[in-house]
Here is the input.
Amino acid sequence: MKPFVRLVRPLFTRARGGTQARTPLSVLLLVWIALSAGAVAEQAPPSSKPAAAPPRVLLVVAHPDDETCFAATVYEITHNLGGTVEELVITNGEGGYRYSLLAESYYGVALTDEATGRAVLPEIRKSELREAARILGIGELVFLDQPDRRYTEDIDEVLDRHWNAAAVREEVARRIASGHYDFVFTLFPSPQTHGAHKAAALTALDAVQQLPDEASRPVVLGCQAAKSIAPGPSWEAFQSKRHRVTVRSRHVYITDRSVQFGFRNVLDYQIIVNWVIAAHKSQGSLQMGVNRADWEQFVVLESGSADAASRSRELFHALAVEAMKPRGVPPASSAPKP
Here is the structure.
């Protein structure tokens, strides 16, 4: 109380022509309340709740452009939250030669010739993905180089005839077991989606379910891009006699690509998505559809991970809080002040 006495004592008496005048009691009471509140606030201990660690995320996808579905979310994780994102791509993308006509003059190769396209596209598409990863802040890229035979919705055709499924399962399981990831992103395995997308999602789920400790299992999130003003996509996962995927909760987590920020609010995350899709020049048809969606939507797929809903809620809350203030590059200390 000594500081309080030193501060208040002058208020009790003051010289006025050799006499002493008393300060009104009401004033003294207000001063005492203000000083007491300041002392309490000054002495309050810091919160004991530790700050959340930046998230670690693994993308498990079939093709070297599938990351475009969650491009804005990945960018915000790496740039706004300081998180780590790595990507595992199962196929070599050779089947994309059918969409490469416009890229033939860019690369100087007859990519739509099947033999030529299948021979050279794998390296081209790796290079394209490296550029997209640089934009998004993705760290390590892992390529399993499985054949990309043809489009089919049949997951069993992919697992039994296109891929070395045992080798894929082993590598995905090894990465997930050693990576200490908080989340795994994959494309949502709807009945109508590519069989390779279904196979990638199922492989990721199987790998997570193999982890013996539920608390260490990452949350597996399936993604679909959608238009905010249109009816939402169906969240009915595919089922077959051999395979079953369960949506753990119908709660949908959303990253809004159209959040505006920057000078006069003229920027948004759709710009980032366009940068990413432009990196995949060999896949022309993707350019047409990228701006049809302004939401990236996710649901939790059942993998036995503990606290999946609360962990997902915390992630997307943090993303929403930081979305309107993306981090740029600090100005150099030597830069002249305006």
The two ends are 48 Å apart (CA to CA). The chain has one domain: 56-322. The chain is about 40% helix and 15% strand.
